[in-house]
Amino acid sequence: MSKVERIIIWSAIAVSLIMSVAALCRSLPCVVGVDYMGVIIGILSLLVTVLIGWNIYSVVDFNKKKEELIAQEQIVKSLVLQISNGMTANAGVTEQSFASIYLYLITKEEPLSLAYWYLNHALFAILRYSEIERYDVCNALTDALISTVTEPSKIAVRKERITEFLQILSKIQDKGRIDRYTELVRIVSSLKVRQ
Fold this sequence. Notes:
single chain; mainly alpha; 2 domains; 6 helices; rod-shaped
């Protein structure tokens, strides 16, 4: 059945129902003390009351849902903005790191050595992987770092940089799941302080 056919059928049913009720009321207005008109009006009044109540409930419920959606939309917008700002900041830091490395390769006079940048990026990688609970990768990166930095006392960095490295290490999540975490701290602590 198409939509037009349904509308025609329901309209015909409604018209026939109204005509049947009207014919009943006209032919038997009052039988054995029961007034059909009063019963019909009572039923219709009850139906109208129920429909008005339902309508008020729907409006109130709709307003609650609308307020909840607006609140959730604001939360999502703030999260998207934070992620966007974080990604932009990380991209800026990465570009600055590459610029410093290239400057060092060109002039050999960059104040932060390649060893600093290697340690910086390796420690940040371990931190980021710990934040997403990829401790297998953290352990692999830790092993690679420890095997490549065999003599940390020959790497000279400023005291502030050593403090930065220690802060990065302190932010690592669930340090107990990184097998050689204490060796990592020892390597950073053993770096030579440059004036």
